[in-house]
Amino acid sequence: MHTGNIKSRAASSQNFGVVYKKTIGHYYVHTNGKVIPCALSNRLRKELIYPTADPNSLRPVVQAVREIEHVDPVAIGDEVRYIDAQDGSGLLVEVLPRRNRLARKTAVPMPGAHPFEQVIVANVDQVAPVFAAANPTTKWNMLDRYLAAIESLELSALIVITKLDLVTDEAGEGDADLLEMVAEYRRIGYPVLLTSAVTGEGLDELRQALQDRTTVLLGKSGVGKTALLNKLQPGLGLRVNEVSQATGKGRHTTTHLEMFPLDFGGAIVDTPGVREFGLWDVDEDDLALFFRDMRPYVGKCKFRLDCRHDDEPGCAIRNAVMAGAISPHRYQSFMKLKDETGFG
Question: Is residue 145 within a helix (H) or strand (E), and if so which, with residue range?
Fold first, then answer.
């Protein structure tokens, strides 16, 4: 985890830390070996509104203050400054600039309403989509959706496949279709780890990939995360699952999240409430840029950037699919995501 600056400041002032856990209205900050429960200052709930005219023609004076109604301004992983209340608690007064964030577009609750950005975790080192080799079957379209979102936020991805023992025969051979898909993602450039909590396969590689990094897990329940985490660190999967069950029952993913330190260095955050992953601030015309295998062909179509990559003549992406440079399933995932209203 990249908290070196925070730790040094915490050692001198005791007023800086990292948010490891949050529930509605409560935040728990790790600092200098302690956990400080904190409330949120009202100043963090307000948005300052500046003039919209030419900034050179007006002094940068705040024109109004608007309450932030929809978005929690603090996310898991945020580096924060707090005021010590001298009773073991604190008051959050500042969120330090984020290196990056994992965010999604919220669903629209009613016609006419507007979606907004929901920051799930801040200051992330990698995002790990987790899927089972079987029971349930791997949903490759969903993986492609996750990967497009991760690419759009300029984050690193680590694909983890669990329950490998369910598709491995007595000779040690894996399912041919699964191995073919794994080879495809590796060819594109994504690291893929094949793991089994039963046989222990891939656990050393997974431990090494997680070490000293802040990792966000994406994946639905039933894919084997609990068993896998218990193997990596005894009891960890049970602790994560307890929080995950509470999170999954809430209306919003961010109402109850927690970051779990790893004994061998680093930390993980599970996000079970992310059933859908709407891409935030992504224009339909730019979507192909977030498919690694399609990116080299963007702008090379007959109709350049106006090509929808559907049935237009001279489409470089469709030609690449026909030539075997882009797999048909990745192209289908792209078209399905592009055709969805607002990518929601």
Answer: helix 140-152
